[in-house]
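Handover notes (outgoing to incoming on-call)

Open items:
1. adenosine deaminase: sequence verified, structure written out, both below. Nothing else pending on this one.
2. Nothing else urgent.
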Amino acid sequence: MALYADLHRHLGGSVVPRILWRYFQRHNPDLAEKYPQYKEFEEFYTRERNTLDEYLELHTLVESVQNIDTLPYFIYRLIRGAYIFENLAYLEIRYTPYLRTNPTLSQRERIEQMKAIVEVVDKASKVNEYPIVTSQILCMHTRLSYEINRAIVDLAADNKHQICAIDVAGGDKLYGDKIDEFVKLYQYARSRGIKTTGHLFETPHGCYPQLLPYLMRIGHGIQIPLQYPELLTEVASLNQCLEICPTTYIKTGTLEELKQLKVVFDRCFDAGVDIAICTDNAGLHNVRLPFEYENLLTQDIIDFEQLQACQDASFRHGFAWPYTQPPSALLVGLLGDRTSIPTDKEKTFSQN
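adenosine deaminase structure tokens:
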């Protein structure tokens, strides 16, 4: 039964290591030769990194093989795994479309091809045998020019039936020199009616409060309760939700241990700030959403009541979730009061 939502999952980091390795073996001789044994590749792909920048370099490995022709291959397997192994009812897939275009084209041609990339992702995400509600978040990128990032905003605004929001991705050390650009881009996005999230306050290098007023959700945001708890009142007043991705902070060296997140959850709950628990890069981590839940529970970072609150918040803050209730509430409504309805087995017993 599909019951969960993931609001923060990158297309580039969503491919589990065995699927990516098999793709190399079948379709990319150069990378197959570089990683001949699966065990060695899995250890390389999923090991902890020292910094966020080092961690983000792994995305380039996947982006190099994700293009207009291969995206259906990867997305089908993403949707299949999300439905069967994670019980997802709702999934927002985020990525930078420009980085999936043909690098041999001119910048203008690559910008034009972004629309085709969005179409491919949309079509590939609709898998009848795995009925998940999906939508796309398009990521601007700190390493791309203002012109390209504005084109990404325009693409999102012109295709709201496929795209639910925009984001900004890339190493947060690069925000500083371009912060005025991103303020303008977010202002422009809001003026065009686009919903917004953004990688912000993830590490001590990514703390830019001047972007907060333009965000409807905050990608990560853990440094707010950890280092700037005075901002929680503003976050709560704006009804912003933090997209917390627990395993990421260990993989990037941002936190030394998962238990450090207890302060994040406690301060957010005390301040009335919603949290959605997400995976970020389930493939890079080899950790699916139910295991994120389990890890938080078993380490006494949250309790079951808090977990339920986070799960409900994921649907409440889902940009394209089409219902007013989470699936569990909808299921109860469909079943009705079963205590007064005899089952077939009960009918049989009553007749004998």
